[in-house]
Prior knowledge:
Blueprint: H1 17-33, E1 43-51, E2 56-58, E3 65-67, E4 75-83, E5 88-96, E6 106-111, E7 120-126, H2 127-130, E8 138-143, H3 155-160, E9 165-170, E10 179-182
Antiparallel strand pairs: 1-4, 2-3, 4-5, 5-8, 6-7, 6-9, 9-10
Amino acid sequence: MQGTEPDACNAAGEVNRGQLASFLMRSADFMEREQRWEPTASVQTFTVALSAENAVAIDEDTGEVTFGVGEPGATGQAILTVDAFTGTLDWEADFTEVTGPFDGAVLHIHEGALDQNGGIVAFLADGDDLEGAEGQALTGSFAEADVDAGLDFRLADLLFESASCYVSLQSDAFPPGAVRAQLG
């Protein structure tokens, strides 16, 4: 409710049809953002192939997009299970042919379409976790409460906006991404 004046609200007053429609639309928007609108879509698993061909570089001056800039021969797989009701993400990832050392390496989920590089949404693993993990499955969990407070992002967004999110393993040798996979 926005009130009858900037500092007053007449909650017991009459409501016209337009005002009620406004209430309903705001409620629907809130429910959709909170992932309580469609309970059948609250849990989803994404299984994606990580590859060097999906890694993207964007020229900052021209905006030109170049695909396939990851580490040649590097591959992997990521399995992400998003539970929007509990606000958790369980993940498993493996990779091969990614060159170390892994001091600055990170495994993240980012916002960004296929031809974009975007901001980090979820931090999954770092160099300590990745060092010596080649060919092995790494696993972990991520809680929505761990999302940077400055981001307007909820795990439910992965369910409905998966084409705008990707998993990336950034290594010391390939900072833009040794391997990458779009979720949707």
